Amino acid sequence: MARHLGLLALVLCGALLVAPAASSAAQQGASCRPEPIEATGEIDFGQGLTKEQAEQKAYDEAMRNAVRKACPAEVSSLASVFNNEMIVDLIKSARRGVPVETEVIERRTISEPVTREGVATSVERYRVTIRTRFAGLAGEEDPGFEVRIVGMKPSYVEGDLMTVGVQATADCYVHLFTVAADRSVTVFLPNKYRRENFLRKGETLEFPSADEERRGIRFRMGFLPGVQSPSIREWITAIATRRNVDLVSGTRIQEALAKVYSAKDTGLIGDLLKKLVELRSSDVTQAVFAYEVFRKDAK
Fold first, then answer.
1. Which residue from 7, 11, 18 is spatially nearest to 225, judged by alpha carbons?
2. Which residues, including other chains, have CB under 8 Å from residue 65's CB and lie 6 or more apart?
3. pLDDT reading at 171 higher than 90
4. The CATH classification of domain 8-18+139-294, taken from the options 2.60.40.10, 3.40.50.620, 2.60.40.2550, 3.30.360.10
5. Which of 72-76, 111-115, 129-133, 193-197 shows the lowest mean pLDDT across its residues?
6. Strand order in the sheet with 147-150
7. What confidence score (pLDDT) does residue 18 get?
8. Rounded Cα distance, 42 and 108, in Å
9. Model-level pTM?
10. H helix or E strand, kind and range, residue 238
C-alpha cells in the first residue's frame, strides 16, 4: 500500500503484459462475426478444484470456444484477451471484436461413467454454457492520428518518482492507464484532482504537472503487495480520442490515487475493451511504454 509521507503518492503496481503473436488474418484486420454465439465449456472437478474454481475454468473454456466459433482465424491472438489476459495492443483487439452482452444460460454438474484400470467409476464435471456476441470498432483507422509517450526511462528503482509526458499529432483527449500483474486496470488521468485531459497538437501533456508536484501529487514506483520478485516489468498506456469520451464511467476501473487496487477491487482489461468498441476506429489511437522497476537492493 502507499505510505503517506506528507504527500499524495501515486503507486504503480507491477505489471507484466504479454502481447500474443497475431495471425496473418489478424494482421490484415479480420474481425469476429457479430451474430450471437452459444458455446459450452466443461472442466473436471479433479485436482482439488472447488466448485467456484471449476465454474470459472468452465466459463473460460466456454469463452474460448465462442472465440473459435466467431473468430476462427484469430484464436491464437484473441482467446487470452477475452479471458481478461493482459495484452498490449488494446486498439487492435477492439478493432477485431470483443465479447459483449455475455450471459450464462446453463450451469450444472454432470456425471460421466468411465472405466479406469478395469474398474467402472464416474467422473464429475462442471458445465457452463454461455451466449455472447462480438462487437468491434467501426470504420477505418486514421494512420495520421498518433499519440506517443515521452519523458520516461527504461528502468526505475522502487521509490523513484516518475513523470509521464504525452504528445499527439492532432487535438485530442487523453486517458492514462496502468495494468497490474493480477490483470487489474487503474486510471491515473483524468482523476478527481485533474479532470481536464485535453491535449493540443504540438504540445506536451505532463502528469503530474509542475503545479501538481508543488501540491504534493507524486508518481512513485512500487510493487503489488505479495510480489516477491526482485524486479517487475510494467506498462503504461495512453489512449487518445478525438472526442471527449469517458472510458471509465460504467466500469469498475478505479483511480490509481494513494491506494493499490487488486483485481477484485477494480476493473479488468475486458472492461476497458468494451468501452473502446463504442468508438470509431478513426477517432482513437494508443501508445504503450514498457519499463522495469527494481527493488532497492536488487539492481
1. 11
2. 39, 40, 41
3. yes
4. 2.60.40.2550
5. 72-76
6. 147-150, 164-168, 205-207
7. 31
8. 10
9. 0.72
10. strand 231-241
